[in-house]
Structures are given as C-alpha cells and as structure tokens.
Amino acid sequence: xxxxxxxxxxxxxxxxxxxxxxxxxxxxxxxxxxxxxxxxxxxxxxxxxxxxxxxxxxxxxxxxxxxxxxxxxxxxxxxxxxxxxxxxxxxxxxxxxxxxxxxxxxxxxxxxxxxxxxxxxxxxxxxxxxxxxxxxxxxxxxxxxxxxxxxxxx
Length: 154
What we know:
- The protein has 4 helices and no strands.
- By secondary structure, it is mainly alpha-helical.
- The protein has one domain (14-151).
- The longest helix is centred in the middle third of the chain and has 31 residues, at 44-74.
- It is globular and about 45 Å long.
- It starts with 15 loop residues before the first helix and ends with a helix.
- The mean pLDDT is 95.
C-alpha cells in the first residue's frame, strides 16, 4: 500500500492516491453524463444502472478518500485559515460535494425503489437535474482543488 503515497502518474506533485482520486471522480462525471444521455434517449433501465453505478463509485471515493482528507488536513484549520491557501475552495468543494452526494444517493435509492413510500417523489426530472448539476459543480470545484494544491502548490 506504500505505492499509494508514492509519486502520482499525472505529472504533478500529487501522490498516486490523489491522482487516482481525480481520475475516479472524472470517471464518475462521465458516467453521470452517459446516464443523463440514456434518459434523454428514453433508455430508462440502462439509465438507472449507469446512474446507480456512478453514485456507488462516487460514494466510495467520497467516504474512502475525501472525508478522511478533509477531516485530516482542512477541518483542523477552520475557520481561522478559511482565506489561506486551499482551505476556502476545499471547504466550498466539501459543502457542495456533500449536498451532491446526499441528494444523488437519495435519488439513486428512490430510483431503485429503496425508500419508504412517504419519501417517494414523482418529479424525477427536478431531483435528477438538481443532483446532476450539483455533482458537476462539485467535480469542477474538485478539479480546481487538485490544480491549486498539486499544480500550483498553494
């Protein structure tokens, strides 16, 4: 497991772990976009499977990497260092990403019939569009965090 903390493969100052996280995050965004296009094409069963896989992948990355990283490196410096280095953008990324992840998990559970009846919504488009928009915003913010930290060293 020591290789995870070794040099990354994207040519920046990031570790292998951070590069892999970025690639998995971008893969999630691609899968979500493919799933969106499947819904537009009215291929709803394929859409459900792709979106469920994307949400599961994202959940694993968020819980396995991002929560631990935020807890370890950013949270101890807040709120005092919010305007220093990458603390602010990482915190905004964490807030937007948390909202996206929670809404995305809820929508995926609902789409698979795994929520109680009183939580079942009928306006799928509104909830799915909101989740997709938040995921894409969180992805852009995550790329910004990667660039700021591992390319600019801020």
